[in-house]
Design goal:
The protein has helices at about 5-15, 50-65; strands at about 20-30, 35-40, 75, 85, 95-100, 105-115, 120-125, 130-135, 140-145. By secondary structure, it is α+β, with helices and mostly antiparallel strands. The chain folds into two domains: about 5-75, RimP-like superfamily, N-terminal (GMP Synthetase, Chain A, domain 3, 2-Layer Sandwich), CATH 3.30.300.70; about 85-145, SH3 type barrels (Roll).
Length: about 150
């Protein structure tokens, strides 16, 4: 098993005990050196206490990984408020403000319906409320957005 897979399994186990969910685990080469990023989410919103608790538990366990025989920095955080999400996450995003890009355009609005074939977004066109269906097969990207 690859080291990243082992780290993800460990992360998911710890996250579950803390009522968190692992969004993404990856290494990145950055200015400061190699960085292990672990991004967490929580249904009620991630907070500093949750991130700190997770970090305090995982840090000593990562030190025991013999595969991590090189220097790295650990970064535990949320994936961000305006993060890109996978299409298969759409059922969990009902009533969220999103930007969905398909082959023709990007539509910014509230996700109000998701099924196996398409999604429906409530948005405004020239100041008038409207609903638009987008085929899931046509979706190129989905990004959470903050509504001001």
């Amino acid at each position: 098993m690859e080291v990243l897979e082992k780290i993800k399994e460990l992360s998911e186990s710890i996250a579950k005990d803390l009522n968190l969910k692992v969004f993404k685990v990856y290494f990145a080469d950055e200015e400061i050196g190699k960085v292990l990023h672990i991004e967490l989410t929580k249904e009620s919103g991630i907070d500093l206490i949750s991130v700190t608790s997770f970090t305090q538990i995982i840090n000593p366990k990562l030190d025991e990984f013999t595969e991590l025989d090189y220097e790295y920095f650990l970064d535990v955080s949320s994936p961000g408020a305006e993060r890109f999400v996978e299409v298969d996450e759409l059922p969990n995003l009902l009533n969220e403000f999103v930007e969905i890009t398909d082959e023709k355009e990007a539509i910014l609005g509230t996700l109000i319906e998701v099924n196996d074939e398409d999604v429906t977004i409530k948005h405004f066109v020239k100041g008038r409320p409207t609903k638009t269906k987008i085929l899931i097969a046509d979706i190129k990207s989905v990004q959470l957005r903050i509504k001001f």
